[in-house]
Structures are given as structure tokens and as C-alpha cells.
Design goal:
Elements lengths: L31 E4 L3 E7 L17 E16 L5 E2 L5 E9 L3 E6 L7 H7 L6 E6 L5 E7 L6 H16 L14 E7 L6 E13 L2 E12 L3 E3 L6 E18 L7 E13 L6 E13 L1
Antiparallel strand pairs: 1-8, 2-9, 3-4, 3-5, 3-15, 5-6, 6-7, 7-8, 9-10, 10-11, 11-13, 12-13, 13-14, 14-15
Length: 292
């Protein structure tokens, strides 16, 4: 079995490294819709009075400009071989978000990366469309990608990975009314190949009208001891798995996306091939930032 990095622990159900000159065209230029796993919210502490439901009040056509930046770091070691840094390049995506009837429509601006090859590949993506289907509690239920026809496979993969990371570090609200100091948990499965349960503990630390400040504490736990590799490539035993993260976001209930904030999730993973006794160790860190 050949072991390669899929980065299964950082909130992305289809991780990949990006290595290309970005010149190949996409064969199919249609919108692709990817369902997102459902969330379960549970109030731990309702917080102080006054309490009220947290609901986005998005008038159709409401517009917002915000920048999404993601950085996914992967170091990998197979047995006693040298440690390899196989991190995909960071990416920064200026967005114009518009509230629709059932979600949020995003138009991409000039997407950039510190990697020159990826930066070149991303140039044709300017003006591409992305959509989030969002339920009444703010949970994203589907991700839609409609890149410009000239967008390469390399650029498309980078954009898909970046938005997956953003989606799985977003926050849903509880059904019950809450006040400042409220604590609730959000449970969600974040991977298909490795059944991972992500539990995000959210604390409402401040509220000024529609403006909320929320602290986040994230843990990921495998629900199985087996990782079934993609494309029926076999399976690995999960020897060790520790992923944890923290962050803070500022949300305006009248706007489609976070106003600002950052979440970082990282840790260590160890896998073993039961047929060959080959051991794969990974150190991962994913950073998602929202800002002006």
C-alpha cells in the first residue's frame, strides 16, 4: 500500500495537496453541490437575562464584503523516514456575499496565494460563484461551487478545500433563547472516510444588538478505530488521534457571513497499515480567518 496525505483531521472531507502549474482546464464546468453533515446543538448554560433566540435576520439582497483566508499545514512521516512538509499553499479569497431566500450567494474577487504557481492558477477564478444553503439556526447544509469556465482543476481543488474548512469551522445557534454567558455545543460528523465527530463548544461572551462575540473550543474524536482509504485503497488502523482548537468570531445577525474572527484546529495523528506494519504519523494545523 502506498500511503499519502489526506489530512483527515482538519475539517475537510476531501483533503489534497495542490501541485500543478495550473494550466489544465476543467473538463466539466457545471455547478457542483456538496451536502454538509447535519449538526445537533445542545444548550449547556442559557446565560444571563435578558435571553432571546439567536436568528439571522437576513433581508434578501443584503450585501457584505469580507475576506476569507485559510492555511492548512501538514507534516508527515512514514516509519523512520525523514519528516516531510506536504502543506498545500495558503489562500486568501475576497468575497461579496449577498443574502438569498434560502442561503448566501458569494462572488469571488481576486483570489491570491503566496505560492506563485497556485496564484497563477487562481487568476481565472475571479468572479466565480459559491453558495451556502443555510437553515434557520445558521447551520450550513450544502456548499455549491460554480467556478468560471477557465478555472483549472488545481484552482478548483484549492477553492473547494478552503471553503470546506470554512464551513466546518462555522457556528450554528441553539433553538432555545440565550443571553450573554450562554454556552452551547454543536456536534457534527466532519469526514466520510474517517468517521470523525467534531464538538464545538460556543460561549456567547458579548452582545451589542445584532453584534455577537462568540468564543469557540473545538475537539475532534474518531468514532471508529479504522480509516477506510478513499477509492477503495484499503484501510488503516487509527493508533492515535488528538485534534483540538480554539478561536473567536464576531457575527452580525443582519449580515450573511462572520464580520471577523479566527479559528485554529491542530494536533497529531498516527495510522498503521495492518498488512505491512507501515506507520504514518501526521502533524496538522488548519487556520480559518475572516476579516475586512
Amino acid at each position: 500500500m502506498t500511503l499519502s496525505a489526506f489530512g483527515v483531521g482538519c475539517s475537510d472531507v476531501s483533503e489534497r495537496t495542490v501541485e500543478s502549474d495550473g494550466t489544465e482546464p476543467v473538463g466539466i464546468n457545471k455547478e457542483v453541490t456538496m451536502p454538509i453533515q447535519a449538526v445537533t446543538t445542545t444548550v449547556v448554560d442559557p446565560g444571563a437575562e435578558p435571553r432571546s433566540p439567536l436568528r439571522r435576520t437576513l433581508a434578501p439582497g443584503t450585501s457584505q464584503q469580507v475576506t476569507l483566508s485559510t492555511n492548512h499545514h501538514i507534516e508527515q512521516q512514514i516509519n523512520n523516514q525523514a519528516l516531510r512538509d506536504i502543506s498545500p499553499p495558503a489562500i486568501t479569497i475576497p468575497l461579496v456575499a449577498a443574502a438569498g431566500n434560502d442561503g448566501v450567494d458569494l462572488t469571488l474577487g481576486n483570489v491570491t496565494s503566496p505560492d506563485p504557481n497556485l496564484a497563477k492558477a487562481l487568476l481565472p477564478a475571479d468572479g466565480s460563484q459559491v453558495g451556502f444553503d443555510v437553515n434557520e439556526l445558521g447551520a450550513i447544509t450544502a456548499l455549491k461551487l460554480a467556478p468560471k469556465p477557465a478555472t483549472s482543476d488545481t484552482a478548483r481543488a484549492a477553492l473547494e478545500q478552503s471553503f470546506y474548512q470554512a464551513v466546518y469551522q462555522s457556528i450554528a445557534f441553539p433553538e432555545e433563547p440565550v443571553g450573554v454567558g450562554a454556552v452551547w455545543t454543536v456536534r457534527q460528523q466532519v469526514s466520510d472516510t474517517v468517521p470523525l465527530e467534531q464538538v464545538t463548544t460556543a460561549t456567547l461572551t458579548a452582545r451589542d444588538g445584532n453584534l455577537l462575540t462568540i468564543e469557540l473550543n473545538v475537539t475532534q474524536t474518531p468514532k471508529s478505530t479504522i480509516w477506510k482509504l478513499p477509492n477503495e485503497a484499503g484501510q488503516l488502523e487509527i493508533v492515535d488521534y488528538l485534534m483540538h482548537g480554539t478561536g473567536q468570531v464576531t457575527v452580525d445577525l443582519g449580515l450573511p457571513l462572520p464580520v471577523s474572527g479566527a479559528v485554529e484546529v491542530g494536533g497529531n495523528q498516527t495510522y498503521r497499515d495492518p498488512r505491512s506494519a507501515v506507520t504514518l504519523r501526521q502533524t496538522l494545523r488548519t487556520e480559518v480567518q475572516w476579516g475586512a
